[in-house]
Amino acid sequence: MEDPKLEKQFKSHRNTVTSLSFAPNTKQLASGGLDSCLYLWPFKSQVRAYRFVGHNDAVHSVCFSPSGHLIASGSKDKKVRLWIPSVKGESTVFKAHTAAVRCVDFSNDGQSLLSSSEDKTIKIWTVHRQKFQFSLNQHSNWVRCAKFSPDGRLIISCSDDKTVKIWDRNTNECMHTFYEPHGFLNDVAFHPSGTCIGGGCTDASVKIWDIRTRKLIQHYANHVASVNSVAFHPNGNFLLSASSDATLKVFDLLEGRLIYTLHGHQGPAMSVAFSKQGDYFASGGQDQQVLVWKTNFDIISSPIESSTNKYANSSDYSTRSRISSGNLQQNKTHIATLQEKPQLETSDERQARKIDVFSEKSIMRMFNDDDQLKITNIGPAYENGIARSNSASAGLINSARMPSRNTRSTYDIEQNNTQQSYPPQLANTLDHIVQQLDILTKTVSILETRLTMTESKIQEINNEEHNRK
C-alpha cells in the first residue's frame, strides 16, 4: 500500500472553503466557500480556474450532477443555483427555503435534487424545471446534511436536534431515527453498498451504522475536535474525515483501524470528497485552501515493490490480517514532516501514519491515539434471502467481527477454541511468548523512531550547509 501524495494546491477563495465535489470525469473540481463564490478548478495546470458569482451570501454546499453537466449549490441566501460548468458560468436560481440552505445532493439518476436547510426541512425537486416534489419535516432543528442512497430509494439526514433519520423516498416517511446523546452530526454519507451510513460528529467521533440492523457498528475516537466532513472511498473499504483539529484521517474499514493522519491545513479542515474512481481526494479548510491528493492507499503493492521503498511497511498490505474484538490498544504514531512529497517513516503495522505537509523544518513528535473501535461486517450479508446482522452477539458490537483480508471471522475462531483444550503449561508458555513479542515490537518501534529522527536531523544539517554555499 502506497502513501497518499499531495498533488495540487488551489488558493483563490477569500474565506473558508465549505464544500467540494469532483466532476464525474475527474477533470474538474468544484468548491464553495463563505466568500459566496463557487470555483471550478481544472486539473490541467495551463487552464485557469473559473469563478462563479451569483449567491449573495456564503455557499454551504456544492454538488456535481452524475452527468457532469450541472453543478448545484446551496447558500445562506436561502437559494439553490444550478450552474453550467463552462466559461460563461450560466445558472438558474430558485428560492428553495425560508432559511439558509446547508446541503444539496443529486440522485444517482440525475433526475432529482434534494436540499436541506436551517428551516428544519428537507425538500426534493425535479432537476428539470426545478419543480417541487415533497418535503420532509420531522426534524426539530437545523438539518445540516441530507443525501440520497445509491439506489435512490432512501434519504439520510442529520440535524442539530441530535438525530440521524432514514427516510423512505416513496412513502415520505421516517423509517428509523438514530439518537446522538453527546453531540450532533455535521455530515453524513451513504456507504457505496447502501447498507451502512457514516457520520462525523461534534463530539470528535466518526461513527458508522448498519441500516439493516439499525445498530452502531463502528466508532472511531481519533480526532480531538469536531468532525466536519466524511467521505467513503468508492470501493467501500476506506473512510476519510476532516476535523477542526486541522487533520484529515483515513480509516481502513475492513481492518477497523486508523491508517493515516494527514496534516495539510493550517486551521480547521471543513470538507473532504473522493473522485468517482477514488484515485484522488480533495480537502478544503478554514485556511482558504483546496488541496488535491493522490489516494495511493487503495492500491495494493507487490512485495517486491514494497521492499524497495525504505519508507514502506516490511510486509505487503494484502497479507495483513486483522481479527478485532473490542477496543484496540492505543496507537503510538509519528508525524513525518514533509516539504514536497509525503514520505513516511516506518512504523508498526498497528500504527497510524501521520503526514505533515507544509512545515519547513523536520520535527519528530510522538502521538498517542485512542482507537475506540466497535466492529462488525460492513458489507451486505443475506441468509435465505433475508438480510441479517453479522454480529456474533446481540450486544453492542464488542464481540462482532469485520471481515479482514484472508481471515476467518472471530465467531468461527471462538467456536474452534471452545472445541480445543490446551494444557495450562502450554497456555502459560504461549502467553509468555506473546508478551515477549509485544516487548520486541515496542523496542523496534522506538528504534525506528530514533532512526527517523536522526535521518531528519542529518537532512536538516545538509540543507543548512547547502544554503550557506
TrEMBL record:
SMART domains: WD40 (SM00320). SUPFAM superfamilies: WD40 repeat-like. WD repeats lie at residues 10-51, 52-83, 94-135, 136-177, 185-219, 220-261, 262-294. It comes from the Eukaryota. InterPro entries: WD40/YVTN_repeat-like_dom_sf, WD40_PAC1, WD40_repeat_CS, WD40_repeat_dom_sf, WD40_rpt, WDR55/POC1. Keywords: Repeat, WD repeat. PANTHER family: POC1 CENTRIOLAR PROTEIN HOMOLOG, WD REPEAT-CONTAINING PROTEIN 55. Belongs to the WD repeat POC1 family. This is Uncharacterized protein. It comes from Adineta steineri. The lineage of its organism: Eukaryota, Metazoa, Spiralia, Gnathifera, Rotifera.
